[in-house]
Amino acid sequence: MNEHLEARLALVTDQGLRRQLREIESPQVPRIQTGGRELINFSSNDYLGLANHPKLKEAAIEAIDRFGAGAGASRLICGSLKPFHDLEESLANFKQTEAALTFSTGYAAAVGSIPALIGKDDIVIIDKLVHACIVDAVRLAGAKLRVFKHNDLGDLDRILKWAQVTPPGQSAQPRNVLIVTESVFSMDGDIAPLKKIVELKDKYGAWLMVDEAHATGIFGGRRSGMVEHLGLSGQVEIQMGTLGKAVGAAGGFICGSRKLVDVLINSARSFIFSTAPVPAAAAAAMAGIEFIQSEEGKQRCSILWERVTQIRSSSPAPSECAEAGDSPGQNACSTPILPLIIGDETKAVATASSLRERGFLIPAIRYPTVARGAARLRMTVTADHSNEDVRSLGEALKQIIHQGS
Ligand SMILES: *Cc1c(COP(=O)(O)O)cnc(C)c1O
Questions:
Q1: What is the pLDDT of residues 249-274, one digit of tens each?
Q2: Does this model's pTM top 0.85?
Q3: Which residue, by CA, sits nearest to atom 3 of ligand 1?
Q4: Is 386 one of the annotated active-site residues of the chain?
Q5: Which residue CA neighbors atom 10 of ligand 1 most closely?
Q6: In sequence order, what are the residues at sequence separation of 6 or more whose Cβ sits closer than 8 angstroms to the Cβ of residue 42?
Q7: How far apart are CA 154 and CA 157, in angstroms?
Q8: Burial of 347 (0-12, 13-18, 19+ CB in 10 A)
Q9: Which of 63, 211, 329, 383 has the highest Cβ tally under 10 A?
């Protein structure tokens, strides 16, 4: 086996795709300690700086004191701990849906819920750039998978039309059609034209699932996500997200109707056949959601948007705008994710190391996270970065790009 493993590693190394873990000795804050050095971290999804916030830490500690360290079994087996129910009530209220169900991660939410709702005779239509967990979930469901060009409504319309036609030899029994997209795309930082996608799914009688992983906590008046921001609450059948990014804790969720949640409790295998998360995670997530909706949360969110504006004006090559005018208020182009597309994998790694030498942590994102030849530095900014952090990153980027890495 060793030889086989060596050959596998040599292959990824040759392609510039070898990945390694970097141990850090500090919490996830903008200035992290690693290998005896301090680096300014511009790669975290902790957009509001809640992962190390005293309110979340206190909530976790309190939950440990009251409910213990572990959950003992799946929630259907030995009783479902109160912190999960409190969190789900809080989430449903936050997202303005009838109900919510939490999972151990966002990944588990996707691979549990899609196969629970969709079977092999059904059709799932996904945006080209959706997260790997959605692709894995559709494969697991065994459904027919169709991919539309990124944010391309014409292409989506074409596939929806195709999905209406019953293939020869099949009974005319209606098949379910599910569209899945992200609201803010994780690796490109652009935004889906959700209003138009809602119109299309209504026109064709399809269902819509929106992954709000990078929008929850930072968009909308209550900051519950892009669905709220665009006034689409109640028009999206399935909202999914993670509690591990702006919410500052860990876990995944599905929000929707009571019936949807009841079906998932009965059929989502990653929910049924997996030990419940630790109660501390649920308590921390709930504290995160409460914080986001508070006046303090609102202020922190405006600091985030100030930093976003600042980094976008001081860095080269911001991502393209998906659909200008789709988003009221905030500029539709504006998200805390800025990809600096490099292309070549080895060159992207070299650029990331020049940045590291200058004291910045922005890892190169490569295949299979993004397409081959589309390697990039994915910069993210948070409310915990200072003005000065962002300014110095802008300087470093200019120097590196001047030198051609
Ligand atoms: C991070 C992410 C997930 C997975 O969530 P986890 O809680 O990290 O498992 C799902 N979808 C998107 C778009 C993500 O960025």
A1: 999 999 999 999 999 999 999 999 99
A2: yes
A3: 106
A4: no
A5: 106
A6: 360, 361, 362, 379, 380, 381, 385, 393
A7: 5
A8: middle
A9: 211
